[in-house]
Design a protein that fits this description.
heterodimer; A: alpha/beta; fumarase; five-stranded mixed beta barrel; two-stranded antiparallel ribbon; 9 strands; B: 283 residues; alpha+beta; 2 domains; four-stranded mixed β-sheet; 8 helices; 37% helix; globular
């Protein structure tokens, strides 16, 4: 399958052109944000930079300072579902172009993505070194008081691979997999276990 | 201890890597599952080569020590904590300990009851088992009290099978599938989770000495992979890399089935120590 090249911040027509199942290669400026950032942004906190069109990456990286420079030593996605209570509000208020993480998100986020034009990008969980190689620069850090994994890191990335699993047209691969595996589970439940001699 | 913990964070155990390679070979080229496994394998090679964390979530540190109860245990505890602090500074372990009262990160991976060090007195040379367990997969771990009417699980092996399959279904891709499942049948609310986790230390290729459990492990592994959840929950033929089941005596009134979910990046090693506390061999 061909990879679609996209650049963050994402243009509205690019977002609209993405559909579930598209493999993308992302370049440009992105920000990280996880539990503390989401709580902060939905309880009156002002975003330290303009988030419109940007990719918000659910990621708590490992970072060290070497010769006065920040260096990311590992940076894979974290479970996005924890941000479900906050994400829709952030999408409608701050208009990011994409949310990137792992595991997908729920109904509220899906609805906000349709209404505001936003997509969910699924990155390979645990592949922290492969993904860290795609980060070519740490531009800066905000809200560092939340702790290193929870701070907002502003990064420049190049060719980071991800899969569109929720689009701005109301589709979700996670819904499909959940429904299919639910049916399969019912079938498996009807085959009782007996010890094979 | 430094070398042991550093290797645990940066080099995926051979049995796990080999299971992922087999999983890649089962997927169709060009599929999302194939691409995902390909990225995972490339990342494993990179982390080992650069001696950097396999996953940015370097997990909760679980240490189990078996050995003769003498003073050396205190030295071991100190050297484990020193190693953890040093590795955190070096970016090999992420700052993963937060005080729930102040919400402040302790910054050095130690804190109240952290790291968890379990000691079991035995009359044998000292053996240390270490696991770095990611938070996402730990969140997917669960415990069932049987009978359970929702999944029609009774107090028998069929009931246990239903619990494990349900746990895998509920986890979908959120525990970083394909996972390795450790199970404890019986025990109490606390010991169930510990024994379930202990099963994850078993080599993926080993065979359960109990014929019933060996058969159940094989059946559940095969059936879980028919769920189609696949790597990261994006669809595919491999949803689990392994199922390991143990058991513990239970109270007549209780029948717990505890399922510990470990992500594909299952990082654990077991070593035997010399009397001086140096690594004698990797088990």
């Amino acid at each position: 399958m061909d990879m679609k090249q996209i650049t963050s911040p994402l243009q509205h027509d690019v977002i609209k052109g993405l559909t579930v199942g598209d493999m993308v290669s992302i370049s440009g400026r992105i920000v990280t944000g996880r539990d503390q950032i989401h709580k902060y942004l939905t309880s009156g906190g002002e975003p330290p930079i303009d988030l419109s069109g940007l990719v918000i990456y659910h990621c708590g990286p490992v970072v060290i300072k070497e010769k006065g420079q920040w260096k990311i030593t590992a940076a894979g996605p974290t479970t996005s579902m924890r941000e479900e209570p906050y994400q829709a509000q952030i999408i409608s208020k701050l208009r990011p172009g994409a949310i990137m993480g792992k595991g997908g998100m729920g109904e509220k986020t899906k609805k906000a993505m349709s209404e505001c034009g936003c997509v969910y990008l699924h990155a390979a969980g645990g592949a922290a070194q492969y993904l860290a190689e795609c980060i070519i620069k740490v531009e800066g850090v905000h809200l560092e008081e939340f702790g290193q994994p929870e701070a907002m890191w502003v990064l420049t990335i190049k060719d980071l691979p991800a899969l569109v699993t929720m689009d701005s047209h109301g589709n979700s691969l996670h819904d499909t997999i959940l429904n299919d595996s639910s049916k399969r589970l019912e079938e498996l439940f009807s085959q009782p276990f007996s010890v094979k001699k | 201890m430094y070398d042991l913990i550093r290797k645990t964070s940066t080099v995926l155990p051979e049995d796990v890597t080999s299971a992922i390679k087999k999983a890649l070979a089962r997927e169709d080229k060009g599929s999302v599952a194939h691409k995902t496994f390909d990225i995972i394998l490339k990342s494993i090679v990179l982390s080992s080569k650069k001696s950097l964390p396999i996953c940015q979530d370097t997990g909760t540190i679980l240490v189990m020590i078996e050995g003769r109860p003498d003073k050396s245990i205190f030295h071991l505890e100190k050297s484990i904590k020193d190693a953890i602090r040093k590795l955190t500074k070096e970016g090999i372990l992420r700052q993963n300990c937060v005080c729930p009262l102040t919400e402040k990160n302790t910054l050095d991976n130690t804190g109240l009851h952290v790291p968890q060090i379990h000691f079991e007195p035995v009359n044998r040379p000292t053996k240390i088992s270490i696991m770095l367990k990611g938070g996402g997969s730990e969140n997917m771990s669960t415990q069932y009290s049987l009978p359970n009417s929702k999944i029609q699980a009774g107090r028998d092996m069929e009931g246990v099978r239903r619990c494990i399959l349900d746990a895998v279904f509920q986890a979908q891709g959120k525990g970083c599938a394909p996972g390795i499942i450790g199970v404890c049948i019986g025990g109490d609310r606390a010991s169930g989770y510990l024994f379930a986790k202990k099963q994850i230390f078993r080599n993926l290729e080993d065979k359960n000495p109990s014929p019933v459990l060996a058969s159940l492990e094989k059946t559940v592994l095969k059936q879980a992979n028919e769920l189609g959840i696949g790597p990261m929950g994006l669809g595919g033929k491999t949803t689990l890399l392994g199922v390991k089941i143990g058991n513990a005596g239970r109270h007549p009134a209780s029948y717990f089935v505890t399922v510990s979910y470990s992500c594909w990046a299952t990082r654990r090693y077991v070593v035997e120590l010399t009397q001086k506390g140096e690594i004698k061999k990797w088990i």
